[in-house]
Amino acid sequence: MNSYGTTVGPQHTLVGRIAPMCEAFRLALHHATNIPPFPTRYAKDFPQWAHKIGDELTKTIFKGIVRMAPKDSQPNETNANKVGQMYGLMIRMVIYFWKEVPAQIERDGLNKLTPEQNQRLEKVIGLELLVPEASELAGRPVTNQEEIKKFIRRRILKFLFQQVRLGLRMINFILHRQAGEVFQFLSGMPKGFKGFLNTDGKFAGKGKRTEIFLLLLMFWPEIEEMRQSQPPKTRKFLLEWLEKIEGKQLVVDPKVFYELCDDIDLDLAPPGHPASVSSD
Length: 280
What we know:
Oligomer: single chain
Number of helices: 12
Structural class: mainly alpha
Radius of gyration: 21 Å
Helix content: 55-70%
Number of strands: 0
């Protein structure tokens, strides 16, 4: 059973929930920075309201990345400050994957599971959903979960080494520029370092609104089931369900939650129902 009480499907695994979300985030960043879209694998069936959350998050936790993107008006101009921001972001990401993720895994005891616990965890994670992409990127069939784990570890290490090499090239390039540009580069690094994740590993720019957005995204399969249920579930039902799951009050006034749903066109009425349906 999933969190809503219906039969579990691949979309209810961790990968099934997060893979479409990551593609939606990437699409939103491409749109915000005027980069052409890319063919999607996981986000094809992602609900439109969830894609709109991705667009909204480019204004909060992703705003630092959007700010670093080159402007069309000056595509060939070297902006030392933005280069510094990108380098600061790379340093932060390397620290996160190299140091903080393994430390969190150890704190959670996920590196000391019994074979039975590992089997249950793998079922919840849903690594098998990554088989098509892993096989394509590896250039050979990836047939079991152990091979997928090895593939993911290699991809993370490859990413880290690429960032280190790119960072060294950036430093070599910028140090041959004028002193003013070197200063701009160094001034941009702290902005980039805190542009996505802060020093505590939390999303930068995350507020109550962003917290609810991320919560909605994590439970998107259950919310879609609520949207299709008969009789239809209401936003009031969704809010109370989320607060029960989280074990805390999400908003002081339910109208705040209803307005947030309006902003992303999250209507829990069935298809064809008037958009003016009551929130409660």
